[in-house]
């Protein structure tokens, strides 16, 4: 017992709060030893685990990423850090493009040149895209492992050069609006199955570009769609997505599962 510190001693010596320690334990990242009265105590193994958590947090990893890393018998620091570097590099490219646009506009302002409508639209779009990307990054960190997040980013970059994501989203939004207007609808009905055909056609470019790892992450994120669909400007909401799932189950029941 001499090698164990109680929670008060740990907070005093590390600067962490008792609330933080309890939070990490509730998330399954840390497991304290309990004394006879049920009070939390921490030995070498627990403090080593706590050190890893704090080191990964300082390195910029999200809680979801830390949970993924510590889920196995021993964290594979090399692969996770390498994946994190690649994610940051992708963000750097996005920031560079935004900086180039802003620098161009600033230069025109300094030369007292008028800013045209198209430039203002680009500036507004850049701001909106940046906010959307921040929200999407937060979602990906919450529902995807670092490897799945990286695989999905690589899939997006692998889409054909002429792929117009904005036009594609508008088609999906239009389909979602038609589905919503038709609900409630029997998932096995011809109308529902026709909607499913249109949905599959829109999903095809992404499915073709995604690896199994990326698809697993996207699937997990959408299984929690009720938790986030009001926070992100997605082309479909939870009700429409659940209808799509029901229509797919109905098709599988009628014809057997397809190799999707």
UniProtKB/TrEMBL annotation:
Q: What PROSITE patterns does the entry give?
A: HTH_MERR_2 (PS50937)
Residue ranges constituting the HTH merR-type domain according to the UniProt record: 4-72
Name of the featured protein: MerR family transcriptional regulator
Q: Name one Pfam family in it.
A: MerR_1
Q: Which domain of life is it from?
A: Bacteria
InterPro entries xref list = DNA-bd_dom_put_sf, MerR-type_HTH_dom, MerR_fam, TipAS_dom
Keywords of the record, alphabetical order, are: DNA-binding, Repressor, Transcription, Transcription regulation
The GO terms describing molecular function are:
DNA binding; DNA-binding transcription factor activity
